[in-house]
TrEMBL record:
Keywords: Lyase. Residues 11-61, 196-242 form the Siroheme decarboxylase NirL-like HTH domain. It comes from Natrialba hulunbeirensis JCM 10989. Pfam families: AsnC_trans_reg2, NirdL-like_HTH. This is siroheme decarboxylase.
């Protein structure tokens, strides 16, 4: 399980409590700590803030704050696969990674498609231009796999200890304080105002780890605190922000087995299979993507993570069993591609995408 991760019970409780659901109020650590005490964890406002600060400094967290939904901010992103021959692997990876539009890049176990990267652009038409340039530079064909349906994006990683829920189910983990904060009215506008753009860019890498993080953000961008609270709360309800809280470094928590399972699901069953697989709590990402005839027969992706090879295999088997309830799954109908190397991980930068989606006021 997770006993080898060097965390105290208090630290485990904090990691489990707030991978989402963190309150949007002037002094959020006070009600957040109070809710933890109601669940049996002895911690106060200062203790909660200091624990998160320490976890962040030690690299247990990637950051603290909102997880911005780039898709709702503007522009586009797509997953791309390609082949890099062993004798040219480093050269090709360097050429791919040199493109600023490439946000993530992983080597994965596959006999042919061993390089998998994400392209993020302000204008969707730029995707084809970037891929054409990569093909020209590397001499290798790229296979564009844009998201056609999203069934789940919920990358939460719990550890054994207080507030962890049940070991396999994990549905009881976490504290939800999203009901706190200002009442807001949702808006129909898909574009951002200049002030909203400034806010998104300020918080995309996290919130300040202070007693008043939202007030500090307001000071930086020259807005009133109440406007920042209302806008962040509205963005959370509109889906521009997926959740607010601690964002763990899953490798630091022992989730070293990263398995991208891919499936050739009959087209008429994708709508049934998708929500059911997405409901499995250990599935962090779940999408429908296009096939590429003769090269890539799979149209369904489900990402799983495990803290050991055995745990990862159990979880993948649960996905297979879920699939098998809908059709006769054979060995040729699926595969699991484990990541063997992180080749690039800069994150999806929102600067150009937000700017292109900002309206003139």
């Amino acid at each position: 399980m997770n006993a080898d991760v060097d965390l105290t019970d208090r630290e485990r409780a904090v990691v489990n409590a707030y991978q989402g659901g963190f309150p949007v109020v002037e002094r959020p650590f006070e009600p957040a700590a109070s809710a933890m005490r109601d669940r049996g964890v002895d911690i106060d406002e200062t203790g909660l803030l200091e624990t998160i600060q320490d976890l962040d400094e030690r690299g247990v967290l990637s950051r603290f704050g909102p997880l911005v939904n780039a898709q709702e901010i503007g522009g586009a992103a797509t997953l791309v696969a390609m082949h890099a021959p062993e004798e040219r692997f480093d050269e090709i990876v360097e050429q791919v990674n040199a493109h600023r539009e490439v946000a993530h890049n992983y080597e994965r176990e596959h006999p042919h498609l061993n390089v998998w990267f994400v392209v993020s652009v302000a204008d969707e038409q730029r995707v084809s231009e970037v891929l054409a340039a990569i093909e020209d530079e590397t001499g290798q064909e790229t296979y564009n796999l844009p998201k056609q349906q999203e069934f789940r994006v919920e990358a939460k990683f719990y550890v054994d200890g207080p507030l962890d829920g049940s070991s396999e189910n994990e549905t009881d983990a976490g504290i939800d304080l999203t009901e706190l904060g200002p009442d807001v009215q949702l808006r129909d506008k898909s574009t951002l105002s200049p002030a909203e753009r400034d806010l998104v860019l300020e918080i995309q890498d996290g919130l300040p780890l202070t007693e008043t993080p939202y007030a500090d953000v307001a000071d930086v961008i020259g807005q009133e605190l109440e406007w920042v609270l209302e806008t962040i709360k509205r963005f959370e309800q509109e889906g521009k922000i997926r959740r607010i809280g601690v964002v763990p470094n899953h490798y630091a928590l022992g989730y070293t087995e990263n398995g991208m399972t891919v499936w050739n699901v009959p087209d008429d069953l994708v709508g049934e299979v998708g929500p059911e697989v997405a409901s499995l709590p250990f599935v962090t990402h779940c999408y429908e993507r296009p096939r590429h005839e003769g090269v890539w027969p799979y149209n369904f992706f489900a990402m799983t993570h495990g803290r050991s090879e055995a745990e990862s295999e159990r979880r993948i088997e649960q996905v297979r069993e879920t699939m098998a309830r809908h059709w006769d799954v054979t060995d040729e109908d699926w595969d699991s591609l484990f990541s063997t190397q992180i080749l690039k991980k800069t994150g999806i930068r929102l600067d150009e995408r937000a700017a292109a989606n900002t309206r003139t006021e």
